[in-house]
Design brief:
The chain is of the alpha/beta class. Among the domains are: 52 residues, no CATH class; 150 residues, STAS domain (Transcription Regulator spoIIAA), CATH 3.30.750. It contains 12 helices and 6 strands. A 6-stranded mixed sheet has the order 2-1-3-4-5-6, with helices on both faces. Helix 3 crosses helix 5 and helix 8 packs parallel to helix 9. It is elongated, with a radius of gyration of 29 Å.
Length: 331
């Protein structure tokens, strides 16, 4: 019968155990979704999968049931059996309920052997040597992930293996974000085309340098950008135009890097122009107050026309350099 849980039974152990079960259930469901495509070819929806599992667990707990989630073994069995719709799982549950009610004695003798055979069948059917070889050839980070995940699953409890996999994935993501950064200089050729070149290591006096950045600029990626930006040491009136098109948010670390770089340019009477900024990113810069857009830093919002904001910044930068040169000549 339906029953509401007693809140007096809540404890730290219960909460942490429930969290571990929830993570395991979601990871299993995500694994099933990624490894087995929908029979009708429709697109996978991880959000719908998670909502369905949450609703199922709420209903199961209301009726004093066990935690439920996506099962790789059951999915493999239904796929091998030729299932074509969601009704396969519903009828499987109905048949299981009927067998348990009608033949409880027989079921008690075959449950464990059948479960063992089901796990063996599911494991064999899900091992794909070609995909494993493809992952191995991808690079050292993929090799590290696949080997450590395999070993942790064999040697550690499932909740520890899941936690280890989550931490490892986060570390690999941070490492990839910090190394997959490149800075290039953009130059307009005589035929009107834009050419990419390796970014200079040193800025020149009275010259406009247009830079573009590839890669993630969050966390350690922003620090990598800081090392790759051209050094303004010794230059007079250096101007740097940094394109940020396609970046809807600006992280705190990136703001700090840009602020420090703008301060270095200001000490040499230079300027920093940020172009291609989205409205959201510009509002974020204004809200934090880390960069003063009325000082040595100028911001240009992106338009529907590629390169328009950068072209405007180049024109303004050259006009400013001409005015500085005129002022110095008059002095």
């Amino acid at each position: 019968m339906p029953h509401l849980p007693s809140l007096s039974g809540l404890s730290f152990e219960v909460l942490t155990g429930a969290f571990a079960v929830a993570v395991i259930t979601l990871v299993q469901g995500a694994g099933v979704s990624q490894s087995v495509p929908n029979p009708d070819g429709s697109r996978r929806s991880m959000s719908r999968d998670f909502i369905a599992q949450g609703a199922a667990n709420a209903a199961s707990g209301f009726f004093r049931g066990l935690p439920v989630g996506g099962s790789l073994s059951t999915t493999a069995l239904t796929v091998i059996s030729g299932a074509r719709s969601h009704w396969a799982a519903i009828f499987a549950g109905l048949w299981m309920a009927l067998l348990v009610v009608v033949f409880p004695g027989v079921v008690s003798y075959v449950v464990m052997p059948a479960l063992g055979m089901l796990l063996i069948l599911a494991s064999v059917s899900t091992i794909k040597p070609l995909e494993a070889l493809s992952i191995w050839k991808t690079g050292w980070s993929s090799r590290l992930a696949i080997v450590t995940t395999f070993l942790s699953t064999l040697l550690l409890p499932i909740q520890a293996a899941v936690g280890f996999g989550v931490v490892l994935s986060a570390l690999l993501y941070i490492n990839e974000s910090s190394t997959d950064i490149s800075v290039v200089e953009l130059l307009k050729r005589d035929d009107g085309l834009i050419e990419e070149r390796k970014a200079p290591k040193q800025l020149l006096s009275g010259k406009v340098t247009v830079l573009d950045v590839y890669g993630h600029l969050f966390y350690a990626g922003a620090r990598t950008l800081e090392r790759l930006l051209p050094k303004p040491n010794g230059a007079q009136h250096p101007v740097v135009i940094l394109r940020l098109r396609g970046r809807n948010t600006v992280g705190a670390t990136l703001l700090e890097v840009l602020s420090n770089y703008a301060d270095k340019l200001q000490k040499l009477d230079g300027r920093l122009y940020l172009t291609g900024m989205s409205e959201q990113a510009r509002e974020q810069v204004v809200r934090t107050g880390k960069l003063s857009l009325s000082g040595p830093v100028r911001a240009y919002e992106a338009t529907s026309v590629i390169w328009e904001s950068t072209r405007e910044a180049v024109t303004d930068a050259r006009t400013w350099l001409v005015s500085k040169s005129t002022d110095e000549d008059s002095v």
